[in-house]
Amino acid sequence: MSRSEPAFGVGLDRNDDACGYAGQQARPSAKVGSLGIEAQPGPTVRVIEVSKIVSHWYDDVLTEWRPDDRHIGKTVEELLSGGDTAPILVVKKGDRFEVVDGHHRLFAHLKAGATEMKAIVLDGTFEDTEDLRTADRHLKAFDEATGYRYRFSDSLKTWTKGLDGDSGTKVKRRNILGVMASALVGKAWSRLVRIAFR
To answer: What is the SS3 assignment for 144?
Structure first.
């Protein structure tokens, strides 16, 4: 491997079929200017069925994990009102996609009854993303220590949102009454938490 090649690329599927993944490396395209540098196609956002997204840490994200309800409640409300979230980062694992970054967004999509969500598929395995995940943990620790003054821990989400360009995909809902009930329970819980910590 030459010095300029990454350990694993960000070659992404062009979303040719519902769940296939070509596993292609990013291919050089045209030369840029007179420098003779090969331009690489960038990562792309694709839509993935929520049922095909899994966690490395939890068998069932919705029942085993307890994220901050205030954060989740806002995201679920946004999804239910027709909004969207930044794409999550995943790696391909068999016929599924394993979350690298985006457990909160996945949880919110599950709570909202979404059937699909946006993601960027990274090449390699979950283990190959250790440096990326470690860097993200360090940025979160720094933000916590500085009272989120700089918000560096949002950098991956900001990057994926910048790539999105809003492909127009909106959340497909299963059962609107169940989803609305979940949102109301989440909202009530958020109010209780706010009152308790005043």
So the answer is: helix
